[in-house]
Amino acid sequence: MNYNKWYENNTKSLKGKLVAVTGATGGIGKELCFHLARLEADLVLLNRSREKTETLINELKKEFGSINVSFVPLDLESIESVDNAVLELESNCPDIFIHNAGAYSIPRHKTSLGIDNVFQINCISPYYLTSRLFQALKENNSRVIVVGSIAHNYSKTDVNDIDFSKRSAASKVYGNAKRRLMLSEYERFKNEREVTLSVCHPGITLTNITAHYPKIIFALIKHPMKLIFMSPKKASLCILKGIFEECAFGEWIGPRFFGIWGLPKRTALKTFENSESQRVFAETEELLNNRLKNQVGKQSAATPK
Q1: pLDDT tens digit string along 223-246?
Q2: Number of domains in the chain
Q3: Which of 26, 171, 203, 206 could disulfide-link to 260, CB 3.0 to 4.6 Å?
Q4: What band does 214 get if pLDDT is binned at 50, 70 and 90?
Q5: Which residues on adjacent β-strands are paired with residue 265?
Q6: CA distance 92 to 153
Q7: Distance between CA atoms of residues 59 and 64, nearest Å
Q8: Is 187 within 8 Å of 280 (Cβ atoms)?
């Protein structure tokens, strides 16, 4: 893959543009930051770990010199953390906001909203973050990039188990969360013109999100995965392309061959009907609003009179 030729044909300078990236210290996110720095973008890194973020910032500055990069703490399991991040971003709204962070096979529990934590990390918190910033994003003519997954096709949405808290298979729990985020955002952006959406996916690549197997098994599959699938550096080009190419309703950008190999290509999804996206959008809005109201009510009840 000729990177220089691909960059020349598919990108342009992002000098003066502010790009926010969640989950910036992981495999795809980290490589994406290096691509963005090469294009002279200003960066806002939204991560849980200050230590890992500072390490990444030092690496970026070592390679690119006086890059403008800042850190905003963000823990997607905590709706309070999302609210705090929004307060820091509202006054300097990003031109591009990339929802890259995700979690796959992690210990599961209910968050303060009473929602499965995997579902909140991969769906509810990213959706809520966009909601809180939506007016500022519109006024700024920004682009929102949602990193989806081919895992969205592993699960069909269930109105009786929205967050899949009754399921145990990690692939289905993760796939349901990604599916609901993608469909909700497709529906939200369907008639928008001032703020645009790109849904992208990296195919299959070796990152922390795939390192969930037992150590012995992971040691056996790690090197074959490197040989068979694209590296995070190559896979992250699919997300980078989303900055320069808008997706229409039901389109996404991913590897061109079978969704797992090759340079990025925009294609139409055939994995859902319009009726499902409309229903999922309504369910996401209702679930989020109800849970937020309940949380406010609990906090008020707990406040000393």
Answers
A1: 555 556 688 899 999 999 999 999
A2: 1
A3: 203
A4: low
A5: 254
A6: 36
A7: 9
A8: yes
pTM summary value: 0.92
Q: What is the pLDDT of residues 108-141, one digit of tens each?
A: 999 999 999 999 999 999 999 999 999 999 999 9
- In which domain, by residue range, is 161 found? 3-302
Average pLDDT in the chain: 91
- Tokens of residue 265, six digits: 């290509």
Any idea what the CATH number is for the domain that residue 215 is in? 3.40.50.720
Q: What is the pLDDT of residues 157-181, one digit of tens each?
A: 999 999 999 999 999 999 999 999 9
Tokens read off for 50? 């200050």
The pLDDT-based confidence of 201 (bands split at 50, 70, 90) is very high
Q: What is the pLDDT of residues 256-282, one digit of tens each?
A: 998 888 999 999 999 999 999 999 999
* Cα 171 → chain centroid: 17
Distance between alpha carbon 13 and the CA centroid of its chain, in Å?
Answer: 23
For residues 21 and 41, is the Cβ–Cβ distance under 8 A? no
Q: What secondary structure does DSSP assign to the chain, as a single string? A: --HHHHHHHH----TT-EEEEESTTSHHHHHHHHHHHHTT-EEEEEES-HHHHHHHHHHHHHHHSS--EEEEE--TT-HHHHHHHHHHHHTT--SEEEE-----S----B-TTSSBHHHIIIIIHHHHHHHHHHHHHHHTT-EEEEE--GGGGG----TTSTT-TT---HHHHHHHHHHHHHHHHHHHHTT-SSSEEEEE---SB-SGGGTTS-HHHHHHHHHHHHHHSB-HHHHTHHHHHHHHSPPPTTEEEEEEETTTEEEEEEEE--S--HHHHHHHHHHHHHHHHHHHHHHHHHHHHHS--
> How would DSSP label each residue in 222-240?
HHHHHHHSB-HHHHTHHHH
